[in-house]
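G., the chain you wanted modeled:
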Amino acid sequence: MTALHPEILRITERIATRSKDSREQYLELIRANKPDGYARKRLTEGNQAHASAGCAVMDKVQLLGANWPNIGIVTAYNDMLSAHQPYETYPETIRQAARDANATAQVAGGVPAMCDGVTQGQDGMELSLFSRDVIAMAAAIALSHDTFDAAMYLGVCDKIVPGLLVAAMRFGWLPTVFVPAGPMPSGLPNTEKSRIRQEFAQGKVGRETLLEAEAASYHAPGTCTFYGTANSNQMVMEMVGLHLPGAAFVPPAADLREALTKAATTKAAKISIAGDYLPVGEMIDERSIVNAVVGLMATGGSTNLVLHLASFAASAGIILTPQDMADISAVTPLLCKIYPNSPADVNHFHAAGGMGFLIRELIAGGFVHADARTINGTLQDQMYEPFLLEAGELEWRPPAEISGDLNILRPVSDPFDKEGGLRLLEGNLGESVTKISAVKEDHRFVEAAVRVFDTQSAVKTAYKAGELNKDVIVVVRFQGPGANGMPELHSLTPILGSLQDEGYKVALVTDGRMSGASGKIPNAIHLAPEGVRGGPIAKLKDGDLVRLDCQSGVLTFLGDETEFNSREPARFVPNATDIGLGRELFASMRVNAGDASSGASFFRFPGMVTPGA
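Predicted structure as tokens:
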């Protein structure tokens, strides 16, 4: 086996040293709850009767007697969102598969699943990031009945998997399996969709043409096929070994998908107290977190995962920083080109070799901890591809020796780039991150006067008025977790992309987020401290000269710093959008949310030193 890259080892050790006290406290929590028998044996007769009253007769004997392990299902099913619609039938499949494995299974509870695609540019997006923490709490309520010996989580998209991960870690004594649903079939090519979006922003095509293009892109049950946050989540689940190998990108309607769901149930029963007990909180450690970051960088994944991986790590007592992620990115080769980094989508990636090929190559290059534990053994056991035999049995085979398409997936010996593309930006405006894997090299440096806005809608108004037809750095402040919940600003991508295509030097600077599929526009996002908490972004004025240098990692105000520091920051004025669509219910979360570097969560875990707390 190839020796681990010395920088990956150094960063892992740095994270472990930093997290020593908080990780020890976390492991004490897990070990204090280690079961000494089936969970239901701890219940009174009345407790057991309530917990089995509604179940099938065939399960009741086992549940009342606590003779078999009981699997708790936490589901994000709803039938409005394509990625989660397939989960409607999963509970019955799991219940039957559990019986075949001498176990029982019950739906412990549901969690909300909202879609950034539906709320993009709408008021509801202000609830999006905080939905992650709500999902974690909802899952905790589902599992609080404490009648389960293992847990299965059904979720895919942007905040759902990160929220479920937090809950899984806080119930870390439970063996855990995540069950994906898979991507929808490929639709309208992504480059064509982007072209029509830009033409609509320019007024060249009407709404009917835009709607037709969008409907041709998002057209069937399954995950959206571009490589945004949802599919980055699925990649992470494979890298940390909470999926069966190769399960992430098998389509929903395939017989292979149903076979994988049944096999996941068998696995959950097998790693429960009835078999080879594997508590997820001990399985996931610093090596797992580093492997997840490496996977993100090697695939050019979503910047939203910078927030979510920090939150995930913290829930397991591990302190992960943006600096760690940037340092990992600097030595991790970019092995994938998936939209927005190329025209190819995740279906094309899967067909070219997918996760098995990627993991094999990262292990061969020494960029991941091959000995990190997974539900299947170690990461070494994760680099396989599932196939369904004629008899209906599953078989895992090694990945192909050669990529099916070198324009999408490459070996570690011939990467697209020597680094992953995430950069930490620092300077007198604070700390932020940027992703350059989809940004052409000649667009990575912008030095221009800024136009300062407090809302996305104000940017769009200025664009329509022709006020942005010049070299410009668009600053959108008061978009952080403490101001309005840190919504994505993806709806600005078509207009900024249009300006860039017209030959202008354009960039975005914000204390908010961009989409997980943000692409060709250079940006500085997650800027901290955020404007509402006294960050320097609140002192910028129209016409100030700012330099954004993605190559060297610099974001800085270029004027008189003494004069700049003496300025009174602009005052954040909450507008009418703080009321309505339930946003008033999230006021305490905005007040208590940590900053972007700690994951923008309002959770405070024992033993953790959380930036922004």
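The chain has three domains: 6-185+220-397, 194-219, 422-598.

Shout if anything looks off.
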